[in-house]
Amino acid sequence: MADTHKVRFEPVGIEIDADEDETVLDAAFRQGVMLIHGCKEGQCSACKSFLLDGDLQMGRYSTFALPDFEKDEGYVLLCRSHAYSNVEIELVNYDEDMIRSGLPVITVQTEVASVAELTHDISLLRLKLPAEHAFRFHPGQYVDITIPGTDEHRSFSMANISAAEGILEFIIKRYPGGKFSGLLENGLSLGIPLEVTGPYGTFTLRVSSDRRLVFVGGGAGMAPILALLRQMAESGNQREAVYYYGARTEGDLFHLEELAHLTEQLGGFRFVPCLSESRPPDWAGESGLVTDVLRRCEQNLAACEVYLCGPPPMIDAALPLLQDMGVPEDQIFFDKFTVTAAAED
Ligand SMILES: Cc1cc2nc3c(=O)[nH]c(=O)nc-3n(C[C@H](O)[C@H](O)[C@H](O)COP(=O)(O)OP(=O)(O)OC[C@H]3O[C@@H](n4cnc5c(N)ncnc54)[C@H](O)[C@@H]3O)c2cc1C
Ligand code: FES
Predict the structure, then answer these.
(1) How far apart are CA 99 and CA 81, in angstroms?
(2) Positive or negative, the Cα torsion across 294, 295, 300, 303?
(3) How far is 324 from 307, CA to CA, in rounded Å?
(4) Which of 33, 118, 248, 345 could in theory staple to 122 by disulfide, Cβ–Cβ 3.0 to 4.6 A?
Protein backbone atom coordinates (compact mmCIF):
# COMPACT_ATOMS: atom_id res chain seq x y z
CA MET A 1 0.00 0.00 0.00
CA ALA A 2 1.22 3.52 -0.84
CA ASP A 3 2.55 5.68 2.02
CA THR A 4 0.49 8.57 3.34
CA HIS A 5 1.90 12.02 4.11
CA LYS A 6 0.69 15.24 5.68
CA VAL A 7 0.00 18.18 3.36
CA ARG A 8 -0.34 21.60 4.97
CA PHE A 9 -1.86 24.53 3.05
CA GLU A 10 -0.81 28.08 3.89
CA PRO A 11 -1.87 30.80 4.56
CA VAL A 12 -5.12 29.05 5.58
CA GLY A 13 -3.45 26.56 7.95
CA ILE A 14 -5.47 23.51 6.76
CA GLU A 15 -3.84 20.07 6.94
CA ILE A 16 -4.89 16.93 5.07
CA ASP A 17 -3.54 13.41 4.49
CA ALA A 18 -2.45 12.46 0.99
CA ASP A 19 -1.60 8.97 -0.26
CA GLU A 20 1.31 8.75 -2.67
CA ASP A 21 -0.96 7.29 -5.34
CA GLU A 22 -3.49 10.17 -5.36
CA THR A 23 -2.97 13.76 -6.41
CA VAL A 24 -2.94 16.40 -3.70
CA LEU A 25 -6.06 17.93 -5.28
CA ASP A 26 -7.93 14.60 -5.13
CA ALA A 27 -6.78 14.07 -1.53
CA ALA A 28 -8.17 17.50 -0.64
CA PHE A 29 -11.49 16.76 -2.40
CA ARG A 30 -11.77 13.41 -0.64
CA GLN A 31 -11.47 15.19 2.69
CA GLY A 32 -13.98 17.92 1.80
CA VAL A 33 -11.40 20.65 1.21
CA MET A 34 -12.59 22.51 -1.91
CA LEU A 35 -9.48 24.10 -3.43
CA ILE A 36 -9.77 26.38 -6.46
CA HIS A 37 -9.48 24.24 -9.60
CA GLY A 38 -10.54 24.03 -13.23
CA CYS A 39 -9.76 21.19 -15.64
CA LYS A 40 -8.21 18.81 -13.06
CA GLU A 41 -5.90 17.59 -15.83
CA GLY A 42 -2.92 19.95 -15.87
CA GLN A 43 -4.33 22.14 -18.65
CA CYS A 44 -5.66 25.36 -17.15
CA SER A 45 -3.39 26.49 -14.25
CA ALA A 46 -6.33 27.23 -11.91
CA CYS A 47 -4.79 24.99 -9.21
CA LYS A 48 -1.29 26.54 -9.47
CA SER A 49 0.32 26.83 -6.04
CA PHE A 50 3.79 27.28 -4.56
CA LEU A 51 5.77 24.50 -2.93
CA LEU A 52 7.24 25.80 0.35
CA ASP A 53 8.72 22.56 1.61
CA GLY A 54 8.80 18.80 0.95
CA ASP A 55 9.00 16.30 -1.88
CA LEU A 56 6.22 16.77 -4.48
CA GLN A 57 6.40 15.09 -7.91
CA MET A 58 4.26 16.09 -10.88
CA GLY A 59 2.80 13.86 -13.60
CA ARG A 60 2.04 15.03 -17.17
CA TYR A 61 0.77 18.58 -17.63
CA SER A 62 0.63 21.30 -20.24
CA THR A 63 3.44 23.86 -20.26
CA PHE A 64 0.72 26.45 -21.06
CA ALA A 65 -0.61 25.79 -17.56
CA LEU A 66 2.83 25.78 -15.94
CA PRO A 67 5.70 27.19 -18.00
CA ASP A 68 9.16 25.80 -17.20
CA PHE A 69 10.37 29.04 -15.58
CA GLU A 70 7.51 28.91 -13.07
CA LYS A 71 8.22 25.26 -12.33
CA ASP A 72 11.87 26.19 -11.71
CA GLU A 73 10.73 28.92 -9.29
CA GLY A 74 8.80 26.31 -7.26
CA TYR A 75 5.27 26.53 -8.64
CA VAL A 76 3.28 23.28 -8.91
CA LEU A 77 -0.08 22.15 -10.28
CA LEU A 78 -1.94 20.43 -7.44
CA CYS A 79 -4.05 18.37 -9.86
CA ARG A 80 -0.85 16.71 -11.10
CA SER A 81 1.17 16.59 -7.84
CA HIS A 82 1.81 13.58 -5.62
CA ALA A 83 3.35 13.99 -2.15
CA TYR A 84 6.32 11.74 -1.31
CA SER A 85 7.02 13.34 2.10
CA ASN A 86 5.18 15.71 4.40
CA VAL A 87 4.78 18.92 2.38
CA GLU A 88 3.85 22.54 2.89
CA ILE A 89 2.13 24.42 0.10
CA GLU A 90 1.28 28.11 -0.31
CA LEU A 91 -2.08 28.49 -2.11
CA VAL A 92 -1.94 31.18 -4.81
CA ASN A 93 -5.72 31.47 -5.34
CA TYR A 94 -8.07 30.59 -2.57
CA ASP A 95 -11.44 31.49 -1.17
CA GLU A 96 -11.45 30.78 2.54
CA ASP A 97 -15.27 30.42 2.79
CA MET A 98 -15.29 27.94 -0.10
CA ILE A 99 -12.38 25.85 1.20
CA ARG A 100 -14.11 25.22 4.48
CA SER A 101 -17.58 24.56 3.04
CA GLY A 102 -16.43 21.77 0.74
CA LEU A 103 -18.34 18.48 0.67
CA PRO A 104 -16.42 15.20 0.41
CA VAL A 105 -16.11 13.93 -3.16
CA ILE A 106 -17.60 10.46 -3.60
CA THR A 107 -18.39 8.09 -6.50
CA VAL A 108 -21.95 6.80 -6.95
CA GLN A 109 -23.65 4.57 -9.50
CA THR A 110 -26.63 6.35 -11.01
CA GLU A 111 -28.99 5.35 -13.77
CA VAL A 112 -30.56 7.32 -16.60
CA ALA A 113 -34.01 8.47 -15.49
CA SER A 114 -34.87 10.56 -18.57
CA VAL A 115 -33.43 12.29 -21.62
CA ALA A 116 -35.39 15.07 -23.32
CA GLU A 117 -34.66 17.65 -26.01
CA LEU A 118 -34.62 21.30 -24.93
CA THR A 119 -33.50 22.64 -28.33
CA HIS A 120 -32.15 21.15 -31.58
CA ASP A 121 -28.75 20.61 -29.90
CA ILE A 122 -29.31 20.84 -26.13
CA SER A 123 -30.70 18.00 -23.99
CA LEU A 124 -31.99 17.67 -20.47
CA LEU A 125 -30.53 14.58 -18.80
CA ARG A 126 -31.82 13.37 -15.45
CA LEU A 127 -29.94 10.72 -13.48
CA LYS A 128 -31.41 8.73 -10.61
CA LEU A 129 -29.20 8.26 -7.56
CA PRO A 130 -29.22 4.93 -5.70
CA ALA A 131 -31.87 4.70 -2.97
CA GLU A 132 -29.35 4.80 -0.13
CA HIS A 133 -27.12 7.57 -1.41
CA ALA A 134 -25.01 10.01 0.56
CA PHE A 135 -24.56 12.37 -2.35
CA ARG A 136 -24.70 16.08 -1.51
CA PHE A 137 -23.72 19.16 -3.47
CA HIS A 138 -24.00 22.92 -3.38
CA PRO A 139 -26.07 24.62 -6.12
CA GLY A 140 -23.74 25.54 -8.99
CA GLN A 141 -21.36 22.59 -8.55
CA TYR A 142 -20.57 19.88 -11.10
CA VAL A 143 -19.74 16.18 -11.29
CA ASP A 144 -17.63 13.99 -13.52
CA ILE A 145 -19.62 11.36 -15.42
CA THR A 146 -17.65 8.35 -16.64
CA ILE A 147 -18.18 7.61 -20.34
CA PRO A 148 -19.64 4.06 -20.42
CA GLY A 149 -17.12 1.41 -21.41
CA THR A 150 -14.10 3.72 -20.91
CA ASP A 151 -12.10 5.17 -18.04
CA GLU A 152 -12.62 8.70 -19.40
CA HIS A 153 -15.03 11.17 -17.90
CA ARG A 154 -16.74 14.46 -18.78
CA SER A 155 -17.76 17.21 -16.37
CA PHE A 156 -21.36 18.43 -16.17
CA SER A 157 -22.95 21.04 -13.90
CA MET A 158 -26.11 20.24 -12.00
CA ALA A 159 -29.06 22.48 -12.86
CA ASN A 160 -31.01 21.43 -9.77
CA ILE A 161 -30.25 22.65 -6.28
CA SER A 162 -29.94 19.45 -4.28
CA ALA A 163 -30.02 15.68 -4.47
CA ALA A 164 -32.82 15.50 -1.90
CA GLU A 165 -35.21 13.96 -4.42
CA GLY A 166 -32.61 11.44 -5.58
CA ILE A 167 -32.16 13.12 -8.98
CA LEU A 168 -29.27 14.96 -10.65
CA GLU A 169 -30.38 17.20 -13.52
CA PHE A 170 -28.08 18.30 -16.35
CA ILE A 171 -28.34 20.57 -19.39
CA ILE A 172 -26.02 19.18 -22.04
CA LYS A 173 -25.03 20.48 -25.45
CA ARG A 174 -24.80 17.67 -28.00
CA TYR A 175 -21.67 17.65 -30.18
CA PRO A 176 -21.93 15.32 -33.16
CA GLY A 177 -19.44 12.53 -32.48
CA GLY A 178 -18.84 13.79 -28.93
CA LYS A 179 -17.82 10.81 -26.82
CA PHE A 180 -20.36 11.56 -24.12
CA SER A 181 -22.76 14.17 -25.49
CA GLY A 182 -23.04 12.18 -28.75
CA LEU A 183 -24.64 9.37 -26.72
CA LEU A 184 -27.62 11.62 -25.99
CA GLU A 185 -28.83 11.27 -29.57
CA ASN A 186 -29.81 7.62 -29.11
CA GLY A 187 -27.17 5.79 -27.04
CA LEU A 188 -28.51 6.45 -23.54
CA SER A 189 -31.61 4.40 -22.87
CA LEU A 190 -33.55 4.64 -19.65
CA GLY A 191 -31.96 2.64 -16.85
CA ILE A 192 -28.42 2.63 -18.30
CA PRO A 193 -25.95 2.83 -15.39
CA LEU A 194 -23.64 5.87 -15.25
CA GLU A 195 -20.85 6.39 -12.72
CA VAL A 196 -20.76 9.87 -11.23
CA THR A 197 -17.98 11.40 -9.11
CA GLY A 198 -18.30 14.70 -7.29
CA PRO A 199 -19.25 17.25 -6.24
CA TYR A 200 -16.62 19.64 -7.57
CA GLY A 201 -16.45 23.33 -8.21
CA THR A 202 -16.54 26.73 -6.59
CA PHE A 203 -19.23 28.30 -8.81
CA THR A 204 -21.51 28.81 -5.84
CA LEU A 205 -23.47 31.78 -4.52
CA ARG A 206 -21.58 33.80 -1.90
CA VAL A 207 -24.65 34.10 0.29
CA SER A 208 -23.12 36.49 2.83
CA SER A 209 -22.73 39.18 0.14
CA ASP A 210 -25.43 41.67 -0.86
CA ARG A 211 -23.68 42.95 -3.99
CA ARG A 212 -25.71 43.24 -7.18
CA LEU A 213 -25.38 40.01 -9.19
CA VAL A 214 -24.58 39.88 -12.89
CA PHE A 215 -24.90 36.44 -14.51
CA VAL A 216 -23.51 35.90 -18.00
CA GLY A 217 -24.10 32.61 -19.77
CA GLY A 218 -24.30 30.91 -23.12
CA GLY A 219 -25.47 27.52 -24.43
CA ALA A 220 -25.45 24.77 -21.80
CA GLY A 221 -23.81 27.29 -19.44
CA MET A 222 -27.43 27.85 -18.40
CA ALA A 223 -27.14 24.85 -16.01
CA PRO A 224 -25.27 26.18 -12.96
CA ILE A 225 -26.70 29.71 -13.33
CA LEU A 226 -30.21 28.27 -13.30
CA ALA A 227 -29.22 26.37 -10.15
CA LEU A 228 -28.14 29.63 -8.48
CA LEU A 229 -31.36 31.39 -9.51
CA ARG A 230 -33.44 28.45 -8.29
CA GLN A 231 -31.50 28.57 -5.01
CA MET A 232 -32.23 32.31 -4.67
CA ALA A 233 -35.92 31.71 -5.32
CA GLU A 234 -36.09 28.88 -2.81
CA SER A 235 -34.35 30.83 -0.06
CA GLY A 236 -36.22 34.08 -0.72
CA ASN A 237 -32.98 35.89 -1.64
CA GLN A 238 -34.04 39.22 -3.19
CA ARG A 239 -30.61 40.51 -4.25
CA GLU A 240 -30.69 42.67 -7.33
CA ALA A 241 -29.67 40.46 -10.27
CA VAL A 242 -29.54 40.44 -14.05
CA TYR A 243 -28.87 37.47 -16.34
CA TYR A 244 -27.46 38.07 -19.83
CA TYR A 245 -27.86 34.86 -21.84
CA GLY A 246 -26.29 34.50 -25.26
CA ALA A 247 -27.75 32.34 -28.03
CA ARG A 248 -27.55 32.41 -31.82
CA THR A 249 -31.26 32.40 -32.71
CA GLU A 250 -34.60 32.39 -30.93
CA GLY A 251 -34.77 28.63 -31.48
CA ASP A 252 -31.70 28.23 -29.23
CA LEU A 253 -33.51 29.68 -26.22
CA PHE A 254 -35.12 27.36 -23.69
CA HIS A 255 -36.56 27.32 -20.15
CA LEU A 256 -38.16 30.70 -20.95
CA GLU A 257 -41.28 29.94 -18.92
CA GLU A 258 -39.26 29.10 -15.86
CA LEU A 259 -37.12 32.22 -16.30
CA ALA A 260 -40.28 34.34 -16.55
CA HIS A 261 -41.54 32.70 -13.37
CA LEU A 262 -38.21 33.37 -11.63
CA THR A 263 -38.47 37.02 -12.68
CA GLU A 264 -41.80 37.24 -10.86
CA GLN A 265 -40.50 35.41 -7.79
CA LEU A 266 -37.17 37.22 -7.42
CA GLY A 267 -37.91 40.87 -6.66
CA GLY A 268 -35.02 42.58 -8.46
CA PHE A 269 -34.23 40.06 -11.22
CA ARG A 270 -34.13 40.64 -15.00
CA PHE A 271 -33.49 38.07 -17.75
CA VAL A 272 -31.89 39.53 -20.87
CA PRO A 273 -31.72 37.11 -23.82
CA CYS A 274 -29.16 38.19 -26.45
CA LEU A 275 -29.34 36.84 -30.02
CA SER A 276 -26.15 37.02 -32.08
CA GLU A 277 -27.54 35.82 -35.44
CA SER A 278 -31.08 35.92 -36.83
CA ARG A 279 -33.71 37.78 -34.86
CA PRO A 280 -37.48 37.75 -35.38
CA PRO A 281 -38.92 41.13 -36.47
CA ASP A 282 -40.68 41.59 -33.12
CA TRP A 283 -37.58 40.66 -31.06
CA ALA A 284 -37.74 42.41 -27.68
CA GLY A 285 -34.40 41.19 -26.30
CA GLU A 286 -30.87 42.40 -27.07
CA SER A 287 -28.90 41.83 -30.26
CA GLY A 288 -25.25 40.86 -30.60
CA LEU A 289 -22.73 38.72 -28.77
CA VAL A 290 -23.51 38.49 -25.09
CA THR A 291 -20.19 40.16 -24.18
CA ASP A 292 -20.94 43.11 -26.52
CA VAL A 293 -24.38 43.45 -24.97
CA LEU A 294 -22.81 43.43 -21.50
CA ARG A 295 -20.45 46.27 -22.48
CA ARG A 296 -23.31 48.23 -24.02
CA CYS A 297 -25.82 47.79 -21.20
CA GLU A 298 -23.68 48.00 -18.08
CA GLN A 299 -21.94 51.24 -17.17
CA ASN A 300 -20.54 50.41 -13.77
CA LEU A 301 -19.83 46.84 -12.71
CA ALA A 302 -17.11 47.57 -10.15
CA ALA A 303 -19.40 46.92 -7.18
CA CYS A 304 -21.07 43.81 -8.66
CA GLU A 305 -20.37 40.10 -8.35
CA VAL A 306 -20.20 38.54 -11.80
CA TYR A 307 -20.86 34.86 -12.50
CA LEU A 308 -19.83 33.59 -15.95
CA CYS A 309 -20.53 30.18 -17.39
CA GLY A 310 -20.32 28.77 -20.88
CA PRO A 311 -18.04 27.78 -23.71
CA PRO A 312 -14.34 28.79 -23.55
CA PRO A 313 -14.53 31.59 -26.21
CA MET A 314 -17.28 33.34 -24.24
CA ILE A 315 -15.31 33.20 -20.99
CA ASP A 316 -12.07 34.23 -22.74
CA ALA A 317 -13.85 37.28 -24.20
CA ALA A 318 -15.59 38.19 -20.94
CA LEU A 319 -12.65 38.07 -18.51
CA PRO A 320 -10.57 40.91 -20.06
CA LEU A 321 -13.77 42.89 -20.64
CA LEU A 322 -14.68 42.66 -16.96
CA GLN A 323 -11.16 43.68 -16.02
CA ASP A 324 -11.54 46.70 -18.35
CA MET A 325 -14.86 47.50 -16.71
CA GLY A 326 -13.19 47.60 -13.30
CA VAL A 327 -14.54 44.40 -11.70
CA PRO A 328 -12.05 43.20 -9.04
CA GLU A 329 -10.82 39.66 -9.66
CA ASP A 330 -12.25 38.36 -6.39
CA GLN A 331 -15.76 39.41 -7.49
CA ILE A 332 -15.63 37.27 -10.65
CA PHE A 333 -16.61 33.59 -10.57
CA PHE A 334 -16.57 31.41 -13.64
CA ASP A 335 -16.91 27.86 -14.91
CA LYS A 336 -15.35 27.38 -18.30
CA PHE A 337 -16.72 24.36 -20.18
CA THR A 338 -13.29 23.32 -21.42
CA VAL A 339 -13.01 20.41 -23.82
CA THR A 340 -11.02 17.45 -22.55
CA ALA A 341 -7.69 17.22 -24.37
CA ALA A 342 -4.65 14.97 -24.21
CA ALA A 343 -1.99 16.46 -21.94
CA GLU A 344 1.51 17.03 -23.25
CA ASP A 345 4.63 16.11 -21.30
C1 LIG B 1 -16.33 22.32 -15.04
C2 LIG B 1 -17.03 21.93 -16.31
C3 LIG B 1 -18.42 21.86 -16.33
C4 LIG B 1 -19.08 21.53 -17.53
N5 LIG B 1 -20.43 21.50 -17.52
C6 LIG B 1 -21.08 21.23 -18.68
C7 LIG B 1 -22.52 21.27 -18.72
O8 LIG B 1 -23.21 21.50 -17.71
N9 LIG B 1 -23.12 21.04 -19.92
C10 LIG B 1 -22.38 20.77 -21.07
O11 LIG B 1 -22.98 20.58 -22.14
N12 LIG B 1 -21.03 20.72 -21.03
C13 LIG B 1 -20.37 20.93 -19.87
N14 LIG B 1 -19.00 20.86 -19.85
C15 LIG B 1 -18.29 20.38 -21.08
C16 LIG B 1 -18.30 18.84 -21.06
O17 LIG B 1 -17.53 18.37 -19.96
C18 LIG B 1 -17.67 18.22 -22.33
O19 LIG B 1 -16.40 18.78 -22.59
C20 LIG B 1 -18.56 18.38 -23.55
O21 LIG B 1 -19.84 17.86 -23.29
C22 LIG B 1 -17.96 17.64 -24.75
O23 LIG B 1 -17.75 16.29 -24.41
P24 LIG B 1 -18.00 15.12 -25.45
O25 LIG B 1 -17.45 13.87 -24.84
O26 LIG B 1 -19.39 15.11 -25.89
O27 LIG B 1 -17.13 15.58 -26.69
P28 LIG B 1 -15.62 15.15 -27.01
O29 LIG B 1 -15.60 13.74 -27.51
O30 LIG B 1 -14.77 15.50 -25.84
O31 LIG B 1 -15.30 16.16 -28.19
C32 LIG B 1 -15.69 15.88 -29.52
C33 LIG B 1 -15.54 17.14 -30.35
O34 LIG B 1 -16.66 17.98 -30.09
C35 LIG B 1 -16.27 19.33 -30.16
N36 LIG B 1 -16.46 19.98 -28.87
C37 LIG B 1 -16.56 19.38 -27.68
N38 LIG B 1 -16.74 20.30 -26.69
C39 LIG B 1 -16.73 21.50 -27.31
C40 LIG B 1 -16.89 22.82 -26.83
N41 LIG B 1 -17.09 23.10 -25.52
N42 LIG B 1 -16.85 23.82 -27.73
C43 LIG B 1 -16.67 23.56 -29.04
N44 LIG B 1 -16.52 22.32 -29.56
C45 LIG B 1 -16.56 21.31 -28.69
C46 LIG B 1 -14.84 19.38 -30.50
O47 LIG B 1 -14.69 19.46 -31.89
C48 LIG B 1 -14.34 18.03 -30.03
O49 LIG B 1 -13.19 17.67 -30.70
C50 LIG B 1 -18.33 21.21 -18.69
C51 LIG B 1 -16.94 21.24 -18.65
C52 LIG B 1 -16.29 21.60 -17.49
C53 LIG B 1 -14.78 21.64 -17.47
S1 FES C 1 -7.05 22.24 -12.36
FE2 FES C 1 -4.94 21.92 -12.32
S3 FES C 1 -4.26 22.72 -14.20
FE4 FES C 1 -6.45 22.86 -14.35
Answers:
(1) 19
(2) positive
(3) 16
(4) 118
The number of CA neighbours under 13 Å toward the Cβ of 208 is 3
Phi, then psi, of 24 in degrees rounded to 5: -65, -35
Rounded to an integer, what distance in angstroms lies between the CA atom of residue 198 and that of residue 133?
Answer: 13
Cβ distance 199 to 172 under 8 Å? no
Instruction: Report how far ligand 2's centroid is from the alpha carbon of 249 (Å).
Output: 34
* Beta-carbon contacts of residue 95 (< 8 Å; ≥ 6 apart): 36, 202, 330
Beta strands across the sheet bearing 269-275: 286-287, 269-275, 241-247, 213-218, 305-310, 332-336
Within 6 A (CB) of ligand 2 lie 37-40, 42-47, 65, 77, 79
The answer to whether the beta carbons of residues 197 and 153 sit under 8 Å apart is: yes
Q: Kindly report, residue by residue over 98-135, the tens digit of the pLDDT.
A: 888 889 999 999 999 999 999 999 999 999 999 988 89
pLDDT in tens, 134-157: 899 999 999 999 999 999 999 999
Element (H, E) at 73: helix 68-73
What CA–CA distance (Å, rounded) separates 269 from 244?
11
| pTM, 2 dp | 0.92
What's the gap in Å between 281 CA and the centre of ligand 2?
A: 45
